Amino acid sequence: MENSNNQTKENVTTILTPDELLKHWQGHRTLTRRVIELFPEKEFFTYKIGGMRTFAEMTMELIGIAAPGMKEIVIGNTEKLREDFDHGGKKSAILELWDKSTEEINSYWEQLETKDFSREMKLFGEYDGTVMSFILYFIDNEVHHRGQGYVYLRTLNIEPPFFWER
Amino acid sequence: MENSNNQTKENVTTILTPDELLKHWQGHRTLTRRVIELFPEKEFFTYKIGGMRTFAEMTMELIGIAAPGMKEIVIGNTEKLREDFDHGGKKSAILELWDKSTEEINSYWEQLETKDFSREMKLFGEYDGTVMSFILYFIDNEVHHRGQGYVYLRTLNIEPPFFWER
Asked: Where, in this chain's numbering, is a divalent metal cation bound (chains A, B) (predicted)?
């Protein structure tokens, strides 16, 4: 049931498999990584408009949510949400954290079963919802902030990647 | 199978039902509507930064995609993508189009069956994908541009709604 390739049109019982959802999310993460890469090192950590945060700060929020969120969903440990990580002002340090998260997400995902997605829980000791609602939130929140990153890049005269390139 | 309330943990075969996906999308649409409402009438049609489009133009792109896309998915007619609509410089005209789209989406959605989501098609005579890939794109694209709308509002000194309010 997890694999859409095994389904025929006659016995389809799902509109989205866990494998497809992971691929969708990791596709978004690939695009976000390209946005991080496009920022000049200095502006990544310093540039902001409208009283908003730097794109480095938004990226650290995403890093603090994604793999730790998946860890809590799968392992059940509750840790406080963290939005700050050591980076020494180096974009490469953030990209390393990003890539480590990518592997961790894949690894935790393997331990998820279809029935887990409807499980209700409290995430980061604070937020109530189903596992699926959290995963959709992780993705939506990333798309939301990446859209803001696009505006930052545009106002820095840098052309962002095409939105549909994943 | 469409209704998660009828599922017990033992026979769960899906992570997301069509009903849940529609509710997710319409939740996002409610939030986007609030962002449109928060723009001052003049700035909605004129304000832009970084060489980007006005939020009115982005909104018309969303209007041109959502209900017409659902219409094509369900009815099968192919029309060219439209991103411009008569509005007479009135935000109320755009909000009327928005609300009409909301009803149309709900109405077309009722005609979708689970098996339709994996159907491959060419949308707007241009884009290849499955029905599900298009619907996810409609949602992601809206979240992306709304995130940009948040930056516009912030730089206009207007506080956007909380992201999780749907």
From this structure: 145
Contact check, Cβ <8 Å, B114/A12: yes
| Chain B contact set for A14 (CB, 8 A) | 13-16, 114
Of the candidate ranges A10-19, A20-29, A155-164, B45-54, the one whose mean pLDDT is the lowest: A10-19
Residue type for position B68: P
For chain B, the 3-state helix, strand and coil shares in percent, each to the nearest 5, are 60, 5, 35
pLDDT tens for each residue of B22-34: 999 999 999 999 9
Domains of chain A in sequence order = 22-76+84-155 (1.20.120.450)
Residues of B in contact with A51 (CB under 8 A): 154
Percent of chain A with pLDDT over 90: 87
Q: Flag if A15 and B136 touch (Cβ within 8 Å).
A: no
Rounded distance between C-alpha atoms, residue A80 and residue A64, angstroms: 10
CB-CB: which of B21, B114, B154 is closest to A50? B154
* Average pLDDT of the residues of chain A: 93
DSSP per position, A48-93: --TT---HHHHHHHHHHHHHHHHHHHHH------------TT-HHH
Measured on CA atoms in the order A90, A92, A94, A97, is the torsion positive or negative? negative
Q: Closest by alpha carbon to B162, among A124, A82, A137, A66?
A: A137
A51 — pLDDT class (breaks 50, 70, 90)? very high
If you measure CA to CA, which chain A residue comes closest to B5? A118
Residues of chain B with pLDDT > 90: what percent? 87
- The ipTM estimated for the assembled molecules is 0.93
